[in-house]
Amino acid sequence: MRTQDIIKLSTRMFKTNPARTWLTILGMGVGTSAVVLLVGLGFGLQGVLLEKIILGDTLLSLNVQNSGGGTIRLTDDALNKFKQIPNVIDVSPLASLPALITLDGVTGNVTLQGVNASYFRYAGVTADAGTLFKDDGAGSIVFSGTTLKLFQISDPKSVIGKTVKLRMSIKNPDTGETQEVPLNKEYVIKGVTNEAGAITATIPLSDLSKQYAPPFYSKTQVKVSKTDFLAATQSEIVKEGFAVTALSKTVDQANKIFQGVQAVLAIFGGIALIVSAIGMFNTMTVTLLERTGEIGIMRTIGASPADIKILFLSEAVIVGFLGGMVGMAIGVGLGFTFNFAINLTATHFGGTAIQLFSFPLPFLTFIAAFSALVGFFTGVFPARRAAALSPLDAIRYK
């Protein structure tokens, strides 16, 4: 049988039984849409968790902290050793100490931090409002989001451009007394970061070092040239007695967790798809009974059992594929509708817009192929039965 004949015969169901054909496709679409929507929710939750992580520099960096014993410290000598490790291209430390900050006549306690501009990139810190200072950011300061609560400020944009005064609390190592040392200039608030939990105010490390030379640093970011070198570099630093964590490992663990979540959601959606596939199998069986006489005529005029099998499988694949396309349209449409409604509500109440449902193109491509495959397996049994029919018995069947 010619290919064009197979195509013509396998698609004529849209003319002979359009209502039943489209209802079967819709049934497959409903099952497929359940899979698309639930797995899309898994992708969306994964994106919400990881969307604030800056890929690139962040995933090439190691977070190094002082050991719990307190005997080994991140001094300048230790940082120089890190720079000598093969494949390390930069080391960006963070110094911190208690301080008093005054904004609009209100004074509160914060943790004053001094960093180089590169630290923000390596640590994955971004600005929720305003900007982060750059290498020439002398006189600039950035707040964490929690710091705003100290001054009962709800709108981060409202503090951008305001000036603050700082007084460092420095402990005398000889007497043990704490002395307040004011910084010799006012600082302009440039931005508010996405950091949560800690009440911090961050200024350029060069500004802090002009008035206070920290005996050691609280932590540092060590950047390597490639992710392949993270494990070896981490081992070298751990040998020196420091605690090391890598954000890339956290991301990998989170991705593995969400892969499990997506698999569970896909199973729930798959139950609906199985029900739809059973309905499609029933339709194909009924079609076989209705067309038994037709099959006998085709066999009589020269159609082979393989031709009959291909004809039925082609119909099943077409129905399954179209069911997948309809399911994707329903699932993606519902997902975008939910996203719009959620973002509209969040924006109305002053929240942040998120994409709770996400549909990557490779995933949708897989669903289209998988739907066609489901159609194929659904049509295997009816196709075998049709191919095995005796031509004479098929002609006499009523």
Structural summary, described in words:
This protein is of the alpha+beta class and 398 residues long. Helices cover 54% and strands 19% of the residues. It contains 13 helices and eleven strands. The chain has helices at 3-11, 13-16, 18-50, 76-84, 117-123, 145-150, 205-211, 230-239, 247-290, 292-300, 305-348, 361-388, 391-396, and strands at residues 61-65, 88-103, 106-115, 127-130, 140-143, 163-171, 178-182, 187-193, 200-204, 219-224, 243-246. Strands 2-3-9-5-8-6 form a six-stranded mixed β-barrel. Helix 3 packs antiparallel against helix 9 (247-290), helix 3 (18-50) crosses helix 11 (305-348) and helix 9 (247-290) packs parallel to helix 12 (361-388). The radius of gyration is 33 Å and the shape is elongated. 34% of the residues are buried. The model has no long low-confidence stretch (mean pLDDT 82).
Give a quick set of tags describing it.
398 residues, alpha+beta, 13 helices
Radius of gyration (CA) equals 33 Å
Q: Strand share of the residues?
A: 15-25%
Number of strands: 11
Please give the count of helices. 13
Overall mean pLDDT stands at 82
- Tertiary shape: elongated
Oligomer: single chain
What is the share of helical residues?
Answer: 40-55%
The biggest sheet amounts to: 6 strands, mixed, barrel
Low-confidence stretches: none
Q: Kindly, what is the distance between the CA atoms of the first and last residues, rounded to a whole number of angstroms? A: 26 Å
Secondary-structure-derived class: alpha+beta
Q: Order the strands across the largest sheet as they lie in space.
A: 2-3-9-5-8-6
